[in-house]
Amino acid sequence: MKKTLLIAAAFLMPFLAAVPAAHAQGPNICGNDGAGYCINAWNGGPDVKMYYGGYANDNFSIQYAYICSGSDLVQSTAHGEATNCPFSNTNLDSGAFWNQPIVKVVDGNNGECVGTSSSGHGYLGSCGNSQGTGAIDGTFNVLWFDSGCGYAFVNRYWSNRNFIDSYWVSGGNPDTYLFVGQQQSWTCWGGSGI
């Protein structure tokens, strides 16, 4: 009996040793209000794509950005503030996004921020200073709570460039890019990083 158990253990050892260790899960940001695919610094970056949660390179969380006269909230002269910020289209400042928080999304592995490539895909780069100087294009977003689904990221760079509200949208499948500037269409985001 002992000999049989030793032979069985010796046979199983190579298979047990090949089982990968569980990944330590940090904060993440995922579509479908946190239940879908998560943003991932693909192969460590700089590309940001979608992948299953709980894997390496999905350690992302928001940080508040104080870029509107020292405030981290959307400002509007229509609501009594001294400035319109952060959008060039003041209707976005005074409308549904007024008084919503301004954030950047930071990769916990390397400290870089999610911004945009010239083609509108998620891309990692410098977070800049506290006023936003030196940050990669697309770093700053308004975190808009949509009671129907969770949070949406309204991207300042693409909203200003398109002169219409432009959002983060999940690529919808593993190994597809995060889209950073989709006009008037958004993904509902959630997860422990928000």
Q: Keywords for this structure?
A:
single chain; 194 residues; alpha+beta; Trefoil (Acidic Fibroblast Growth Factor, subunit A); 4-stranded antiparallel beta sheet; two-stranded antiparallel ribbon; 3 helices; globular; disordered N terminus
Could you walk me through the main structural features you see in this protein, from its secondary elements to its overall organization?
This protein has 194 residues and is of the alpha+beta class. The protein has a single domain (24-183), classed as Trefoil (Acidic Fibroblast Growth Factor, subunit A) (Trefoil). The chain has three helices and ten strands. The strands form four sheets. Strands 3-4-7-8 form a four-stranded antiparallel beta sheet. Strands 1-2 form a two-stranded antiparallel sheet. Residues 1-24 have low confidence and may be disordered.
